[in-house]
Predict the structure.
Amino acid sequence: MVNPLTLVRILALVLYGTFACLDIRNIWRKTGNRFFKPFLMPLLAVYLLSGWRMAAGPSGLRSPVPWLMAAGILCGFAGDTLLIGDKHVTAGLGAFLTGHLFYIAGMCLESARWESLVFPGLLVLGVYAVYGFLVLRRLLPHLDRTMKGPVFAYMGVLIAMSVTASARFGAARPDAFFASFLGSVLFVLSDTILAFQLFLKRGERGVMETYVLAQFLIAQGMILQAGVQTI
């Protein structure tokens, strides 16, 4: 007999992939239809929690880690909804910033070790310092005074999230580390494209493609590691 959690997990993933593809298609066709976007993160939260429960066993959801990560994903839902139509940019940034704080907390509790910040953490931070400088130099002339503070704060927390993902190096199994860290890097790339779209009026292509993959990889990396912790 098939485990009901397996069916829930498969259904959530299939719907996540389908709705993501439909939303990306609407972006490419410039239909203005973003009907599928708000469904993505709730589906991913279901995938995460059901996958964590299967990987970590009966006591898996007693840990605060999956709930912190699910909270981060659902902050993404709030951000996705607020940014539809680009009408509530500051509130959307705040929602995503809060989500990254949940991710940082979850990764620290799950498998981050701060000695890993020496390597690769310092290397990652150095790369991001250069990257952030170049991005902000391009963006700042196009930001009004009220947006400079939120953008600086958001970029700082976003980079901190990716650096924290790099601190799982050596503590998490290789595939779990690689998935979550790659997801964090794609999140940085996605938000960079989004910033250029919002403030420099560039095209929307590339934002959702990198975003949906980033969120999935972060969640998948945590699920993979949950299976190791019960051995």
